[in-house]
Design goal:
Strands 1-2 form a two-stranded antiparallel sheet. α1 runs antiparallel to α13 and α5 crosses α11. It has 14 helices and two strands.
Length: 355
């Protein structure tokens, strides 16, 4: 009797596993196809950006470019800590390696036209770690919304001292910061998210965001803008070693933050292409001529694209390991607590991960 029960149990487990694999087959291919398309578009972006700077690249030193590249990688890497803090505030706590994998593999979706793709990819990848779609989507959307007041704040506390011309031309990018700040207050944000999930006929969040994770997320984003500013400063100093000092550091941080914010708000262009570079050139005018400033702007975008590729590669390398998915995520609605993370299927490979 015991052997028959064990056999039936094993058959049931195999059947359930097969059913889950069948249900998730379409999702595997959808995620895999979208991410492969995004990787192809990312490669095309790198080629295009390199062509724009290769004729002037010799004006920079190898050491300066490498140092700026490292600062850019750190700037991009810091954003995952913001997303992870917000996700924890929603009751889904992930180990850092899992958060890095989900966030950065999903982030390459931004190279597909339409800003929704990174959010969709992060939602699907999060399910493999037991995080419900509403929680993953909320964290991803709030990070995007937080970036605007964070960038605006970084620009507002630095640029007035060094670049009044840039502020006079792009004041509108800072004017929306108070609006975003109001939207991101916990009472307003909770109502907006509840309305969005109701319209999408999805279950509401069981744990609304409080002020603490929102402030933590904003803090990590401010640190990210600081790293971006440092990367810009390293390129400026590389072009003209005589240009230095605290004023240039402030200018670099504020200029990049203003450029990023303005580019983000021009929704019709992917990743603010063109707008970000134009604003950065104008904001850097007090320190450097337009020609070298244009080179800095183009190289900064190229390094940011390289950083996206670096972190995506790190995310792919960090295939699931560790305890059960349900316990990792804090018991999300779509968790599969009986399936260890290391046995979950890798959406990039379409086969079980062997971390």
């Amino acid at each position: 009797m015991g052997e028959h029960s064990s056999a039936r149990g094993a058959q049931g487990a195999q059947g359930a596993s097969g059913t889950r694999a069948g249900r998730r087959g379409a999702r595997w291919w959808l995620v895999r196809g979208a991410l492969l398309l995004a990787l192809g578009l990312l490669a095309l972006a790198l080629i295009s950006q390199w062509r724009e700077v290769r004729d002037s690249f010799h004006l920079l030193t190898v050491g300066g470019v490498i140092a700026s590249g490292i600062a850019t990688v750190l700037a991009v890497g810091t954003t995952v800590l913001s997303w992870r803090s917000l996700l924890a505030g929603l009751g889904a706590r992930l180990p850092l390696r899992a958060a890095v994998r989900i966030f950065f593999v999903g982030q390459i979706g931004k190279y597909i036209p339409g800003s929704v793709w990174p959010v969709l990819a992060q939602m699907e990848l999060s399910r493999d770690y037991g995080v419900s779609r509403p929680k993953a989507a909320s964290a991803s959307l709030v990070v995007l919304a937080l970036a605007v007041p964070s960038g605006g704040l970084a620009a507002a506390v630095t640029l007035p001292f060094v670049s009044a011309k840039a502020l006079a031309s792009y004041w509108w990018a800072l004017a929306v910061v108070p609006l975003f700040a109001v939207v991101l207050t916990p009472p307003v944000l909770s109502r907006l998210l509840a309305l969005a999930f109701r319209l999408l006929r999805r279950p509401p969040l069981d744990e609304p965001l409080t002020l603490r994770p929102i402030m933590a997320g904003a803090g990590w984003l401010l640190l990210s803008f600081l790293w971006y500013g440092l990367a810009t400063w390293l390129l400026l100093r590389d072009l003209d070693p005589d240009v230095s000092g605290a004023r240039l550091v402030l200018l670099s941080v504020g200029a990049y933050a203003l450029a990023w914010t303005a580019g983000f708000l021009v929704l019709v262009l992917p990743a603010g292409a063109g707008v970000r570079e134009a604003v950065l050139v104008l904001a850097l005018a007090p320190a450097i001529a337009s020609g070298p400033a244009t080179l800095v702007a183009l190289v900064a975008r190229l390094l940011a694209t390289v950083a996206d590729l670096v972190w995506a590669a790190v995310g792919v390398a960090l295939r699931g390991r560790g305890p059960m998915a349900g316990s990792l995520a804090g018991g999300g609605r779509e968790a599969s607590p009986a399936v260890p993370v290391e046995r979950l299927d890798d959406p990039l490979r379409g086969s079980p991960a062997r971390g």
